[in-house]
Amino acid sequence: MATTRDRQLVEQWRSIQDSYFRTAGAIDRALEAKFDIGLNEFEILDLVAESTDAACRMKSLGERTPMTQSAVSKVVDRLEKAGLVSRQTCADDRRSLFLELTDAGRALHESAAVEHRALLKENLG
Amino acid sequence: MATTRDRQLVEQWRSIQDSYFRTAGAIDRALEAKFDIGLNEFEILDLVAESTDAACRMKSLGERTPMTQSAVSKVVDRLEKAGLVSRQTCADDRRSLFLELTDAGRALHESAAVEHRALLKENLG
DNA sequence: CCAAGCTATATGACACGTCATTGAATGACA
DNA sequence: TGTCATTCAATGACGTGTCATATAGCTTGG
Lengths: 125, 125
Known about the structure:
2 copies of one chain form a homodimer. The first copy, chain A, is mainly α. In chain A, 68% of the residues lie in helices and 8% in strands.
């Protein structure tokens, strides 16, 4: 039974999807073009950049993004390969790692964040 | 320069991401578990189901979802393999195809739509 | 202090989406 | 009508995400 309430829900959902994909797509393409990193890479970079504590963070990153633990691990692989972050072993728990921006990483993050914020503003109104 | 406006934007964006992924994820897992189709498959099924005209529709589907043309093509592959839709050649333009639900497709769509709507209501409030 | 279980991260197999390209059909225009 | 550009859909190569599992280190109860 297709109620009008159902139709409303579906319309609402499609509009969410649409604006989500448009925004994410625009940011992703812009970052890719100008800084050669994808949106997920940037978002991890952004999380690392805003972490002030020296805590062990691979774990805590996982809690602050919808990405899977293994997705985070692979994104960090790429960031590390690109020389933007480095994994530091953690003295008090040797299973854990924490991440540090390299100088290159910090520099790139600063420019990319400007772009990111601008596109958010443009797309979220 | 990180303004508080920037922080607001970022918070807003993360909250959108979060609710988008939670909703999409919940629906996807439920449909996968109960009907053995993913969210994208369902959404194409849903679009086909609500198309009344007998127009050639592969094309028009592409305009009603954020999916790529090639993504749509592959989703339809899977739906066809699963016996839920069939591709019909189009007399007035032989490049085009239109899609039809099979009986199985219609039946599955009816049950799955109930679940889909329920989860939307639950997640979109 | 050892065994059993738990936690943090990495990895391999696999599924799916994207981009670029192809093939086929159509349209447009000299 | 013959050429050239355009449009619709399919496909292959490739990147990245997920799930299940592996590995290593920590923890706890006997």
